[in-house]
Please model this.
Amino acid sequence: MLRLPKFRYLQPKSVAEAVRMVSDGGPDALFVAGGTDLYPNMKRRQQVPKVVIGLAQLKQLRTTKGKPAQGMVLGAGLTLTEVAEDRRIQHAYPVVSKAAELISTPLLRNMGSIGGNLLLDTRCNYYDQNYEWRKGINFCMKKDGQICWVAPSSPRCWAVQSSDSAPVMVAIGAQVKLISSSGERLLPVAELYNDDGIHHLNKRPDELLTEIHLPPTNGWRATYWKLRRRGSFDFPVLGVATCLRLTGDGTVEHAKIVLGGIGSCPIEATLSEKAIIGKRLTEETVHDAAEAAYSPVKPLDNTDFATYWRKHMARYYVACTLRELGGLPQGLPHPETENSVPALRVFSSGPFS
Amino acid sequence: MGGANGAERKDLRVIGKPHRKVDAASKVTGQTKYADDLVLPRMLYTKILRSTVPHGRILKLDTSKAESHPGVKLVLLGKDLPIPYGALPVSEDEHPLAIGKVRMMGDPVAAVAAVDEDVATEALDLIDVEYELLPAISSIQAALDTPEPRIHEYGEYGNIHRRQAYEFGDVEVGFAEADFIREDVTFYEGSTHLALEQHASVAQFGHDGKLTLWTCTQDPHYLHRSLAKVLGLPQNHVRVIATTNGGGFGGKCDPFAHEIIVSKLAMMTGRPVKICLTREEVFYCHRGRHPVLMSTKTGFKKDGTITAMHHRTFLDGGAYGGHGVASTFYTGVLQPTTYKIKRYKFEAVRVFTNKAPCGPKRGHGTPQPRFAQEIQMDKIAEQLGLDPAEMRKKHLIPPNSLTVNWLRVGTMGLGKCIDKVVEGSNWKERFRKLPYGKGIGLACSGYMTGAGTPIYWNSMPHSGVQLKLDRSGGATVFCGSAEIGQGSDSILAYIVAEVLGIDPFDIRVVTADTDLTPVDLGSYSSRVTLMTGNAAIQAAERAKGMLIQAVSAKLEVPADRLVFADRRVFDSENPEKGVTFVEAVWLAEAKFGTLGTVGSYKPAPAPGKFKGSGVGPSPAYSYTAAVAEVEVNPETGIVVVPRVWIAHDIGQCINPVLVMGQIEGSVYMGLGEALMEEMTYRGNRNVVHKFPSFLEYKSPTTMEMCDVITYLIEDQDSNGPFGAKEAGQGPQLPVAPAIANAIYDAVGVRIDEVPITPDKVLKAIRAKAKGQEGRYGPTVFPRCDMPASIFVPTPEEGGDGKAVERQPVLA
Amino acid sequence: MKPTKKRDNRKPAKVQICLRVNGEPVEVAFAPHKTLLEVLREDLALTGTKHGCELGECGCCAVLVDGRPVLSCLALGVALEGHEVTTVEGMAEGAKLHPLQEAFAELGAAQCGYCTPGFLLTAKVLLEETPQPSREQIKKALAGNICRCTGYIKIFEAVELAAARMAGKPAEPSKESIYGWR
Ligand SMILES: Cc1cc2nc3c(=O)[nH]c(=O)nc-3n(C[C@H](O)[C@H](O)[C@H](O)COP(=O)(O)OP(=O)(O)OC[C@H]3O[C@@H](n4cnc5c(N)ncnc54)[C@H](O)[C@@H]3O)c2cc1C
Ligand code: SF4
Ligand code: FES
Ligand code: FES
Model:
């Protein structure tokens, strides 16, 4: 049986107490919400905090506030199931509830929080391994070692940002509220991430994520396509979140196309956005945008699937999201998207979604 | 048909009915005790330190810090267990803990017994090991190219473990007769069992010098022998109790290091000792599907008649022998059981590599060659412009015949199986007629119902059953067979209940305890239902005979008029006249004394008489045909399998609902191997396993599982109990090739290897679009010097099953 | 959660918590870094809850916490103070099996039985929330539980059978699921 290392577990009764506990705990203290990311990492000894501060009891983190027109506010501690099943979110921000529903398994979604999902550790096939395995390759620089086994000549870590909600939140322009003993700040989710597998978050360890501020629903539409091997369990090896605002005649006024699961942070496909802004979505413009997504995507051999194929799929998935939002006919079944018309019949929900 | 095994009986009351399993109630309430559920007073816990290099000599091994760690009771090393062992007597090349050398990442090096798992885990990190790295081998080609250093000091030469070469009839003559010859090179990637239960064992050593081991093994008898040998204990002082296996699929057949380690630790500490492996460690135990590279050269006539086949295989064996020698045979010996092959040559080479050892996984060594053969059949049919179903049907092995390599086939329902899936899938209207992107494909297979020979040479029964009747009207069946989820405990109850006319739930079943139960060789090679079933019939018939004598005397009814049914024994001509089953037992016990009978089963000798003819023969062969439907997205290469139609010649269902479960489970495993499962390593990174985890080793979830339309073909075989054949392994075999063939039907590309991942499909589609060959698969087949074949004339040529000096017909 | 007296400095002090397990109040003391899975199996002798990975990757450790199926291998024992836990041992009502348990037994949906507790508990909640689920809904609800034996089909059929019976219909398994197609 894989077991947790020893640690001290604290259960604050309020946000203020949680923040105090973490600053008292210093660098060895970590928050835990659902624990579905932290505990596996601790069992594999990738993370070994001395103090763990449990957030599950904090009712303040479990609330949903606000109106879509002004932007809703989600408590960071809402479980993924709650986010996926909340009628208001489903209605006003279907892309958010869909992304949550695509995460892992129903069992895990009953535990994992939306906040924890945004703060998920980066992933890598050389890192998400038991202690004994990592010892066998002499560890890597993300934990206990010197070298990057994916790119041995590289000075940095290329572990992959693998949260399904991150690209979505970046694409729609959500913000997060961070509270620490020295105050609070509101940070665009886009600025939460760093292109570095180790220092992947622009969040100090003593900051508590309390809220996610969703933008007002003023005419934009968004979708998220996730690539993974199986219809459940699997992390995204590519996720494309696309958010568009179209004018009355269908011209793209605003576009955000954000790729997850292929780099250490969500990657904005700016060239793809450029290819469609000011234009209408046609097979041609979609094609141009998709082509423009090809070169910025540089997947490495540290997740599931062959890298060349993931790179190909980025192009393909960008096109799929645009077709979906532009109401163009679709090539690939996308089981989770009701409004797409698959050319191939969808059976169950297919292994790849 | 028929005889003592009841195959002729028509008036079945229990057999063929969907009874619950005898262990169903305890399994659905969480009461079943698996090995890791056992707790004994004062129990210690073990953790194993494993090699962190793929190949190396141990230069230093300092355990002093670990030994003095509070809570640690003992640290065990290789020198404490110097006697080697292995599943097969011909390759006893394992030590429970490394002696001087490690051969793979994850090889056991030291074991710590401590008061709890936390302490044992901490102690592992305090053990200081230094290795001298040796060059590591991670592929078949590398093993052939790198004779030195040798991974083992035995074997053929260099890093070649085993070479086998057989020729049944002169294949060159056969090729000369052919209208066409084609040679296809295919590859079947390795995969693992991934049973949900991680291996666990608990050992206890008494002051009477007797050892008891509770462990999740499929083969308690073979483990019993290995344990006694390695521990230096008399066999009668060792008791192995196989706890209910939380899934086996072949992964719990070998004797394992951890089983020996906890036994030894129990002997040395005088306390019960437990181990439960982590998922990562289970990946290192492995013994799963061998990666096999195959070349199949087939000569055929315009009507599809196969005049000759030369089938060659290379097996990547991993670091140890295990069952590998048998696996090597199985990559060729069952090929001739489905279609008539006039002459057959089979050459196989197993190499050692510094990876987890391969062995028996569902279908043991045969899914790989079936894949090669069945996709080639599809290509042949296309080349000849024939319908693949019709072509196959035309050339089936006839029932009650001998194959080219001297296997005796009894009933043979493959033709009916093909008819069923062809009809069910609407094959005629759909094959080669579906729109681009959709396709259907067919494949067939045959599999054995129990290996004809045991793992170590002996002439005793393969299965024994003892039956005790008691005054309560109950019966207890004792048998060494191990329940791994297939329902083997229940089979015993059903069969005894059928013969004695009582309810299966009147019967208690005691199994898999080497102290209490007669030997059954184990839950492998689909042997259990047939062999324990026949032994159970014999025991029950003998008991019935005693009851008949007693009742017939009492009622004054002739023995042949007595019927056993509904817990009564009565006169068939006057059903009112009879006694209850309990009364019958009382009468018999009064007459004969305490009631107990035995039954045993041993397969008939095989017709082949050449060296190596022991692998392949079986009392009966099961047959399966499958049609898979696929949807391929040509832009991504993604393959979805919505449905599989499968027809299986089961002989006779002892319990149809259990047969259905075995077939559906086989389709599942075939689907996984076809599309996603793979045991892969990073050759350039210390040969680490790429992803020894449940998450990254991809096993289909509910979302990927296809619909399964099953047809049960009951073609009773006189060798099976009530005519039954196997269901646990055979139905997996046609699934992967059917999917590969369907993909060709859908998008016109051949994927000649598994797993068929979308990147491979896309590559082939793109190659085809560029005017290149629309194929993904191996292109080169390595060279290896082979010994002269053992040459055996075929039955058709009038051979007598013996090998002869080769007399080439073609000069 | 109150630490009991420190006894030796190597072993961390145990914590003691109160919770409800299978409808009964339980007090249990254990090392604070133990997961619910370990507490159930090792400290409460409820070994019906199984484990196949301990990392959230297989689903066979599923139990209900406050009526929701969760992974006991990723839940911390001490965090369950005051909560209600249901394990497979608590599914039957007295001597009467839950309809799901009956259906699983009838259809051979428990082969090796190792994944069964997790499936049963997850399916129980599905049927509470969606009494007449479609096959697709069953697949989705059970997508976090892996079974290597059955190919899931008998499990789906058992859930459908139980659902029908719980709706008061005298349902029997279909002929095709027992004898195959003709
Ligand atoms: C088998 C498996 C499959 C998975 N599949 C997916 C998937 O498909 N897609 C996906 O996106 N994720 C996946 N995950 C990852 C993870 O479970 C989810 O991302 C989940 O949402 C994490 O939330 P949590 O509350 O459990 O996080 P925790 O483990 O509690 O925390 C994660 C990190 O965030 C920190 N943290 C949590 N909450 C706060 C807060 N409020 N303030 C400050 N810091 C905080 C913690 O200290 C920790 O470092 C998977 C995990 C597993 C085990
Ligand atoms: S990308 Fe390199 S450094 Fe980062 S986790 Fe993977 S191997 Fe380690
Ligand atoms: S034990 Fe595998 S998910 Fe918990
Ligand atoms: S019944 Fe064995 S894993 Fe499901």
